[in-house]
Design the sequence.
RNA sequence: GGGCCAUUAGCUCAAUCGGCAGAGCAACGGACUCUUAAUCCGCAGGUUGAAGGUUCGAUUCCUUCAUGGCCCA
């Protein structure tokens, strides 16, 4: 029974206290990490190390104990990796030898002594002292199979991280990705900014918000679904290159691709258009892939993704023609589109305005085919209330979405900066809302006012960081790249 | 929201047609000064997710619920 193990370990903590030692001490100082020791001495043989007698102090969790009678091996894990500690009876003071008996797998210990190599070649620390620094009361999962139960892995991510090295690596990669992105934009003279998560009017995307309440102001507030409108206000204010890398909240279903809170990068650059952003996006993803993997060809599930530049480009209309079987001269023909929608089992097709219908067909027919990075361009105006019209075709906008592995990774456009047009678009969205579209964009009078002061010609983009991390780390579920994905509370 | 699947010891998994609930690892006791999932001997550990039903008898069959996973919308 679990309580049996816990009480056994509590007894060991008590035994330590009886010896006048704190089972939760905090006075041990580490001089080296495991990785530093491996890096410094990987080429040193047994005799060389004996001569050098390099003294180190390492601290970490005991991942394995192998007792050989008068010799005990610990495998220690610290933030950098693992190192073996060898506890020889004739190298340790009596008090430390007795302490070995109080150490369990899972405890945090400190070991000091010279770096050595065993006869079998294992680089180790020969312990001349042993401290027990943190008593672990709960047993770790089995050493070979680890922890695999998905629910437990997410609920007790700390255990998942202790025992599953690949999980640790995935989250380390996530950190490096975020860091690379920040550096990428800082190098291009972008300013990192933070804008409100709590908003009295939400906007910037088509999604349902979380609603909350401010008590002392007695005010309804929304969790933001996107930072877009605030970032464009900053561009109006003269911050011509800004980015925000932060959380968005959308009140929708949970799946392998959706978590209610997710991390997005949004960036805005004045005097640029959506074509410029395609080039910038290629550069960002290509550089990131090389930075992480040293190559631009990486596995994702059964596929090999290529981030070699340039990425494929496919207009929405081309997609309708090539993948949905819509005749080339009928991409704006409602009857032809409805026929395609029926073939593809698009629900509620008859209720949709033209642009929504085109996109629903495109998504049903083409989305899953877009495995290699592909810029889908030239979206219908109806579904793009914040994008600039195309000069050549006012029914379309200067917009692209980047698809990869059948998923939307990024969404970008030349920004609509005509306040009159923007007001009309919001009005059209209000009309959609009246028809029952809960995801239609709400009117934002202050945003119109900001545009009336004049926003320079600008292009902006949003990139889903969680999905990007999934691609870069070959993970099939968004929950594998979010430390604590949303779950129902335990019973 | 719909369908399918899973839930058994701390962890990973068994259990024949409905017939005494088992193993490995971890733990506990012991042997061992070069192990690498150490090895060897011994011992212990269970409200089979919850509630109800069928049955002489339920881990197994049925119903409802809970949690999670996958697929679909």
Sequence:
């Amino acid at each position: 029974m679990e309580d049996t193990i816990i009480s056994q370990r509590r007894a060991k903590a008590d035994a330590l206290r009886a010896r006048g030692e704190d089972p939760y001490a905090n006075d041990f100082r580490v001089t080296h990490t495991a990785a530093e020791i491996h890096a410094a001495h990987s080429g040193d043989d047994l005799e060389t190390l004996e001569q050098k007698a390099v003294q180190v102090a390492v601290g970490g969790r005991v991942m394995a104990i192998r007792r050989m009678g008068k010799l005990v091996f610990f495998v220690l894990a610290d933030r950098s990796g693992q190192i073996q500690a060898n506890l020889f009876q004739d190298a340790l003071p009596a008090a430390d030898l007795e302490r070995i008996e109080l150490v369990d797998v899972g405890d945090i210990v400190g070991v000091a002594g010279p770096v050595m190599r065993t006869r079998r070649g294992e680089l180790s620390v020969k312990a001349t002292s042993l401290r027990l620094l943190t008593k672990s009361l709960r047993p770790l999962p089995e050493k070979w199979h680890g922890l695999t139960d998905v629910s437990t892995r997410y609920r007790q991510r700390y255990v998942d991280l202790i025992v599953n090295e690949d999980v640790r690596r995935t989250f380390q990669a996530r950190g490096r990705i975020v860091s690379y992105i920040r550096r990428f934009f800082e190098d291009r003279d972008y300013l990192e900014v933070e804008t409100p998560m709590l908003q009295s009017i939400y906007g910037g995307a088509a999604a349902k918000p979380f609603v909350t309440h401010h008590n002392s102001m007695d005010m309804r507030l929304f969790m933001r679904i996107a930072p877009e409108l605030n970032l464009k206000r900053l561009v109006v204010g003269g911050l011509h290159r800004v980015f925000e890398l932060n959380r968005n909240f959308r009140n929708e279903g949970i799946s392998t691709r959706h978590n209610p809170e997710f991390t997005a990068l949004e960036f805005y650059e004045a005097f640029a258009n959506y074509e410029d952003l395609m080039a910038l996006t290629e550069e960002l993803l290509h550089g990131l892939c090389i930075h992480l993997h040293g190559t631009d060809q990486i596995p994702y599930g059964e596929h090999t993704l290529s981030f070699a530049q340039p990425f494929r480009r496919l207009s929405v209309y081309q997609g309708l023609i090539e993948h949905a079987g819509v005749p080339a001269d009928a991409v704006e023909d409602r009857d032809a589109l409805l026929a395609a929608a029926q073939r593809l089992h698009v629900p509620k097709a008859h209720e949709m305005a033209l642009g929504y219908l085109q996109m629903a067909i495109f998504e049903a027919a083409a989305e899953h085919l877009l495995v290699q990075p592909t810029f889908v361009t030239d979206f219908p105006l109806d579904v793009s209330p914040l994008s600039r019209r195309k000069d050549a075709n006012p029914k379309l906008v200067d917009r692209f979405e980047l698809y990869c592995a059948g998923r939307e990774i990024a969404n970008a456009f030349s920004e609509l900066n005509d306040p009159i047009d923007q007001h009309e678009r919001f009005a059209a969205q209000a009309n959609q809302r009246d028809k029952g579209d809960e995801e239609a964009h709400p009117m934002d009078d202050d945003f119109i006012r900001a545009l009336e002061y004049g926003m320079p010609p600008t292009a902006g983009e949003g990139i889903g960081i969680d999905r990007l991390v999934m691609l870069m780390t070959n993970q099939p579920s968004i929950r594998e790249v979010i430390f604590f994905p949303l779950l129902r509370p335990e019973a």
